[in-house]
Amino acid sequence: MDHFANRSGSLHAEDVPLTAIAEAVGTPVYVYSVATMKRHAEVMLDAVAGCGSGEPLVAYAVKANPNGAVLRVLQGCGLGADVVSIGEYRRARAAGIAPERIVFSGVGKTAEEMAEALAGGVLQFNAESIEEARMLSAIADAQGKSAPIGFRINPDVEAGTHAKITTGTADNKFGIPAAEALGAYAEAERLPGLKVQGITVHIGSQLVSIAPLEAAFRRLGELIGALRAQGSDIRLADLGGGLGVPHGADQPQPALPEAYGAMVRRVTADWNCRLVFEPGRLIVGNAGVLLTRVVRVKPGASHPWLIVDAGMNDLMRPALYDAWHGIEAVTPRGAKATVNVVGPVCESGDTFAMAREMDAVEAGDLVLFRTAGAYGATMANGYNSRPLTPEVLVDGDRWALVRKRIDLSDCAEVDPDWR
């Protein structure tokens, strides 16, 4: 469910006409709906209520959309944070998320990042190698603190999603293979400054079926039993994220959060662990759109080329993952056309859709890309010396610019003093 709907012939974000935002801010621009984010947070919280022992923690994956205004909305909904860098940690803290509601993931945490997060406080460091645990041990010992830690385990389960967002197979840069878990935990128990308390898994993103997740969780449950038998007091299990979001009626339909929650209750019933969940896309994906304007329509050999002012630098997912986004006219005329939708960047990969049937549009018309609230603005860049895309937050009939359009002239480039 989202709050982008056609009213009187034109698409609105909640009660705000998208035409008004485009006129005031220009295009391309990301637009986020507060009501949609709140609704998705509520659905996820309801789905996992009663799972595990103690209060489950829904730790929003900040990487999906780290805008401070978005984080403050989600903090107000009762969500914690899953962070993968000290920058994300600082954003989460600035948004009011308490340290004990933050898990620190990521394969490349530096010593400096670990030291700052340990001093500021976290619920758990999700370590991805024994080498990382050794570094954290030295830092915690030097600070005279006990660092809460769990290892990310690769259960060698194929997620059934795009290869570039699959993360749980045996040969992967993330985590440690399940076969090496007992040895890693045994060494961590001997290291000073570590409080071994948890375990975590994350097998990929945009999963349509919950079957791979269930297989991974069952493997994790077996490991929890083996680790406890070995002497580790595992009390927290982080089940990651990955549940997919709907992209349109004619696209694969993912399992509902309610079905996911029921599966988790069934699989984890005898774990006696507090559970953590890391949804990102599920919360903000359909809460955002990318608003763009048609530059021109160019004749093509098979289909016309619909050239818009948003490029792959603004929305990288189609170029990176062959991701599908719904594309609609903001003020549709009723006619349809089959077109190739592309941006202005000088790369053949700057392609959003080929042979797509959509609303017929002309130069100057506004178009939007659906499901752009996650991994959109946060992955944007200035390739071709294009400015970073602005972001707008809508709440009812109010809207605000929450990130301005950033031109390269605003960046910290300096001439060397020897010129």
From TrEMBL:
It is an enzyme of class 4 (lyase). Its EC number is 4.1.1.20. Residues 30-373 form the Orn/DAP/Arg decarboxylase 2 C-terminal domain. It catalyses: meso-2,6-diaminopimelate + H(+) = L-lysine + CO2. The keyword Lyase applies. Gene3D superfamilies: Alanine racemase, Lyase, Ornithine Decarboxylase, Chain A, domain 1. Keywords: Amino-acid biosynthesis, Decarboxylase, Lyase, Lysine biosynthesis, Pyridoxal phosphate. Pathway: Amino-acid biosynthesis; L-lysine biosynthesis via DAP pathway; L-lysine from DL-2,6-diaminopimelate: step 1/1. Its cofactor is pyridoxal 5'-phosphate. Substrate binds at R281, R317, Y321, E347, Y375. The keyword Zinc does not apply. Residues 55-284 form the Orn/DAP/Arg decarboxylase 2 N-terminal domain. Specifically catalyzes the decarboxylation of meso-diaminopimelate (meso-DAP) to L-lysine. Belongs to the Orn/Lys/Arg decarboxylase class-II family. LysA subfamily. This is Diaminopimelate decarboxylase. The gene is lysA.
